[in-house]
Design brief:
- The structure holds two protein chains of two kinds.
- Chain A is of the alpha+beta class.
- Chain A has two domains: 33 residues; 94 residues, Sandwich (mini-chromosome maintenance (MCM) complex, domain 2).
- Chain A is built from two helices and eight strands, in the order αββββββββα.
- A four-stranded antiparallel β-sheet of chain A has the order 2-1-8-7, with no helix packed on it.
- In chain A, β1 and β2 form a beta hairpin.
- The relative contact order of chain A is 0.16.
- Chain B has a single domain, classed as Arp2/3 complex 21 kDa subunit ARPC3 (Orthogonal Bundle).
- Helix content of chain B is 79%, strand content 0%.
- In chain B, 43% of the residues are buried.
- The chains are: A alpha+beta, B mainly alpha.
- Chain B: InterPro entries: Hpre_diP_synt_I, Hpre_diP_synth_I.
């Protein structure tokens, strides 16, 4: 280990922290006033497949396309990928997502799930213009 | 013509090393996929194959290492990939190779192999995220970059330590004799 290595590690950790810390703070404050419903946009191969509102009720969404099979589950105002027949299973490691900007990707199946605030959300530019 | 003979001998050795390293890299990624390690960060992995890329860069010329990266990526794509996943891994592999090569040229005195392997791992992640964001036409995937950066530091240190032990032990083998002077 040289001094350059330690500087490098420090630099990277600081950069990561700059992005992560506001996200944690934001997460804590948004729990206090559960702001509005969120929607999950599901796209397959660049085309919109479906949008679902993220509610507290449990709901499963089955996605069968020419690229493969995926099973999503909506619960507790978030969404989660619970099954897929892709070879690498990376999409299952994304876990439960509930925040704006949260994403689940399944590369082999060209599947993308994104969470967006439906209304009045801070980082939703369209809502601000409205 | 002893000099010509020696030269072709060296070229042969290079080819052999590239082939062996590429094969070992593929085996390492197979081993890695067999380790049930839940990283809890999507896309994060140990990057054991990077051990071979970095060692190759250390002993051989950049173009030999480049050849080795291409071979390794192609072979792993044939073994467990699909065409689309090949595009992502080649993007990551090339980013990672370019970053490590650049650092070896520029910062060899300031950085040890640990620092270089950290950069290599992170560049791999950035390359794959860039490929994915172009492919899906969304920048939201970079949401995961900070977590990947932290994981990249940890796995990079592990890989770097492995390389640090691997280089002196390989240097003792006669196969690598001709290449020590080049790097010293």
């Amino acid at each position: 280990m040289k001094r350059g290595d330690i500087l490098l590690i420090g630099l990277i950790v600081v950069i990561a922290a700059v992005f992560l810390v506001p996200r944690w703070l934001d997460g804590e404050s948004s729990e206090k006033y559960h702001n509005g419903p969120r929607i999950a946009k599901i796209t397959v191969d660049g085309k919109p497949f479906r949008t679902v509102e993220l509610t507290g009720e449990e709901q499963t969404i089955e996605i069968k396309t020419e690229f493969g099979y995926n099973l999503l589950k909506v619960h507790d105002y978030g969404i989660e990928m619970i099954d897929a027949d892709c070879p690498d299973k990376v999409c299952l490691t994304f876990g439960f997502i509930e925040r704006n900007g949260g994403t689940i990707v399944c590369l082999p199946h060209k599947l993308l799930v994104e969470i967006e605030g439906a209304s009045g959300e801070g980082d939703d530019l369209d809502a601000v213009v409205k | 013509m002893p000099s010509l003979n020696e030269q072709s001998n060296l070229a042969l050795k290079r080819t052999v090393i590239v082939a062996i390293f590429a094969a070992v890299a593929v085996v390492l990624s197979l081993v890695e996929s067999a380790i049930p390690l839940n990283m809890s960060v999507p896309g994060a992995k140990l990057g054991l194959a990077n051990i071979m890329v970095l060692t190759c860069l250390y002993f051989l010329r950049a173009r030999d290492a480049f050849m080795m990266v291409l071979l390794k990526t192609l072979l792993s794509a044939f073994i467990f990939g699909t065409f689309s996943s090949f595009l992502f891994s080649i993007m990551g592999a090339l980013f990672s190779f370019a970053a490590m090569w650049f650092l070896l040229v520029v910062g060899r005195k300031r950085l040890s192999v640990i620092g270089i392997s950290i950069i290599g791992g992170i560049a791999h992640n950035i390359g794959q995220l860039t490929a994915a964001s172009l492919y899906f036409n969304t920048t939201k995937i970079f949401y995961y970059l900070p977590m990947l950066l932290i994981m990249g530091v940890l796995t990079g240190i592990a890989v770097g330590i492995a390389v640090k032990y691997l280089i002196p032990s390989l240097s003792k083998l006669s196969l690598f004799e001709g290449f020590l002077a080049e790097t010293a």
